[in-house]
Write a structure and sequence with these properties.
single chain; alpha+beta; about 25% helix
């Protein structure tokens, strides 16, 4: 049995593109490494652009054995 935890990691503002940049990826790596150190395992993540495409976010789900 697992406990699941989902988080939203907002990325920098986008005006002409909905793509993540190097800074966004570094922040994602930092979060993944922090959660791994706490015993969380990555289940899935997805990049979600907003409808205005001005700002997006990573939606990340982790799991940990109970």
């Amino acid at each position: 049995m697992y406990t699941y935890k989902s988080e939203i990691l907002w990325v920098s503002s986008k005006w002409f593109s909905d793509k993540a940049n190097e800074k966004d990826l570094a922040e994602l790596d930092e979060l993944l490494n922090e959660r791994a150190a706490e015993g969380w395992e990555l289940v899935t993540y997805d990049y979600m652009a907003t409808s205005l495409q001005a700002r997006g976010a990573f939606v990340i789900t982790f799991r940990k054995a109970k």
